[in-house]
Amino acid sequence: MNRRGFLWAGGGVLGAGALVWWQRNAIVRAALSRRVNADVRLSAAPSPEDDVCLLTAEQDEGPFFLRGPVRSDIREDRDGLPLTLRVQVVRADSCQPVPDAVVELWHCDAAGAYSGYRADLARKPVDTLLYLGGLDTHLEPTHPGTFLRGAQATGPEGSVEFRTIFPGWYEPRVPHVHAKVFVGGTSYLTTQLYFPDDFARDVYARHPAYAPHGMSPYALGNDLILGRYREADGLLLRGERTGERMVASCRLGVA
After folding, report:
1. With 0-12 CB in 10 A as exposed, 13-18 as middle and 19+ as buried, what is 193?
2. Rounded distance, CA 76 to CA 218, Å?
3. Which of 6, 41, 188, 215 is packed most tightly, with the most Cβ within 10 A?
4. Contact 183, 101 (CB under 8 A)
5. How do residues 76-110 score in pLDDT, each as one tens digit?
6. Distance CA 126, CA 130 (A)
7. Is 159 helix (H, G, I), strand (E, B) or coil?
8. Nearest one of 227, 211, 132 to 169, comparing CA atoms
9. Mean pLDDT of the chain
10. If DSSP codes are grouped into helix, strand and coil, which group holds residue 150?
11. pLDDT confidence of 234, banded at 50, 70, 90?
């Protein structure tokens, strides 16, 4: 190859590399959305009214956990479909309520942003993963913020109730709510709660707080974190939408 040909070839490689880098998020989004979560057993969370108790499956804590303030209304200034989430904590083997357990919830807003962290990465999967340094790495907050975070201690029946909003989506996740349960200061459960795909699509298409961000390319069948766990017992929330609000309940079973 002569010098001119070498320069042309080198320029072509650099140009292709630049194009790939420029389109990096779209390329990775397409690959991630084609994933298939095979053999994941995702079952509905028992309701406190059900005569069913099970050991709630564990899931990743994720990079955005911060201890939230003690409160029942965690919305602050976030817009979205109002969601009342009722949680009961029980012993999985006996179904006995666990009083004085601390239930901690946190999730993203309608735009896919978590309080305390950068909001510009929600639609950039490559940039997000590079910024996080790995799916299992805890990320220190970059600024103050507490929206959509909160904790409560359970009463005699092991129950708490939170007022929040339906979570948005971000790359590369379906809508989900993070939950931790502490008993006597010790963490007994770390998990994530999910929603039916058709319900999420309806919210994203029709509610004005979510519509500007478009439809998520991710579903329960290709969600990156859900696919890492074969056992996902008791993690699918059964909710009812009445007008412009949603009510959901779940029973979390701990050892």
Report:
1. buried
2. 27
3. 188
4. yes
5. 999 999 999 999 999 999 999 999 999 999 999 99
6. 6
7. strand
8. 211
9. 89
10. strand
11. very high
The neighbouring-strand residues paired with 229 are none
Q: Which residues are CB-neighbours of 107 under 8 A, at least 6 positions away?
A: 114, 148, 164, 167, 176, 177, 178
Give the count of alpha carbons within 13 A of 51, CB side only: 0
Q: pLDDT tens digits, residue range 117-131?
A: 988 878 888 887 787
Whether residue 190 contacts residue 59, with contact meaning beta carbons closer than 8 Å, is answered with yes
Q: Other C-beta atoms within 10 Å of 242: how many?
A: 8
Q: Give yes or no for a contact between 232 and 45, defined as CB atoms under 8 angstroms apart.
A: no
Q: How many residues does the chain have?
A: 255
**Which pLDDT score, from 0 to 100, does residue 10 have?**
46
Cα distance between the two ends of the chain: 69
SS3 content of the chain, % helix, strand, coil (to 5): 20, 30, 50
Percent of the chain with pLDDT over 70: 91
Q: Give residue 11's pLDDT band: very low, low, confident or very high (50, 70, 90).
A: very low
238-247 mean pLDDT:
86
Yes or no: say if 116 and 201 are a contact pair by the CB < 8 Å rule: no
